[in-house]
Design a protein that fits this description.
This protein is 80% helix and 0% strand. It has 71 residues and is mainly alpha-helical. It is elongated, with a radius of gyration of 17 Å.
């Protein structure tokens, strides 16, 4: 989902016809590329995990989020 969001950020100036504004085009392209890179890094880090490890990883993320929210 993160990679798709980054691609959307890159493509949105052309889709919504404001690619002529160079500053908006620059920021959307920069943020889109950074988002795609972060998504690819996340995918690469989890690539060789087994199903059980992925499940545990998800539970750890949920647990830390609920602890930080004070639940």
């Amino acid at each position: 989902a993160t990679i798709l969001l980054g691609l959307w950020l890159i493509a949105s100036p052309a889709i919504f016809n404001y690619a002529q504004d160079s500053m908006m085009l620059f920021w959307h392209a920069l943020l889109g590329v950074l988002t795609v890179l972060l998504g690819a890094l996340q995918l690469w880090q989890d690539w060789e995990l087994s199903d059980n490890e992925l499940l545990k990883h998800g539970q750890d993320v949920l647990r830390s989020a609920s602890m930080s929210a004070g639940l």
